[in-house]
Amino acid sequence: MRVIPIAASAGITGFESPAAEYLQLSLSLDEMLVQHPSSTFIGLAEGESMQGVGIFDGDLLIVDRHETAKNGDVIVANFNGEFVCKIIDMQRRMLVSSNEQHLPVTICDYDDFSIEGVVIRSIRCHRQSPLFISKKG
User: Fold this and answer.
1) Cα separation of 35 and 92, whole Å?
2) What does the pLDDT look like over 25-47, one tens digit per residue?
3) pLDDT digits over 53-72, tens only?
4) Which of 93, 96, 94 is nearest to 85 (CA)?
5) Which among 40, 55, 53, 64 is positioned nearest to 118, based on CA atoms?
6) Which segments within the chain are labelled E, that is strand?
7) Residue 87 burial (10 A CB sphere; 0-12, 13-18, 19+)
């Protein structure tokens, strides 16, 4: 993979010359973004509840099932039959949004709850990919 070494700063005015030297990396995007390929899946974020941690509607979530969730991790969980992306608060047994317009949800003993994986990366697509177009309504 060829990478253009651009140092983005607050005063960025443009890109380096196309004639500038490229860096050659021996890694693929899979190797850079996925640690445990056999236990990793990609999800599509919906909604505004996780904007405070930089996850926006339409972002791709790289979710690793191999990782053990720790307090404060962003997780994907099955909560009463619905897949949700939230911050896990293990001490208070709560699912927390990073948008204060969404209240935390307590995980009760009677709830059907399972952690599906830890969100290890999120990717923002600036042009919609036909591979990830939602099949809604």
Assistant:
1) 30
2) 667 888 889 999 999 999 999 99
3) 999 999 999 999 999 999 99
4) 96
5) 64
6) 2-3, 23-24, 40-44, 60-64, 74-79, 82-89, 94-96, 105-106, 113-123
7) buried
Structure tokens at 46: 């919906």
96: tokens are 């927390």
State how beta strands 23-24 and 82-89 pair.
unpaired
The encoded tokens of residue 66 equal: 């191999």
- Which residues are catalytically annotated? 49, 86
Q: Residue 44 CA to chain centroid, in angstroms?
A: 8
The pTM for the full model equals 0.78
Residue 13 Rama label (left phi>0; alpha psi -120 to 50; beta)? alpha
Q: Is 51 exposed, middle or buried (0-12, 13-18, 19+ CB in 10 A)?
A: middle
CB within 8 A of 73, min separation 6: which ones? 87, 88, 118, 119
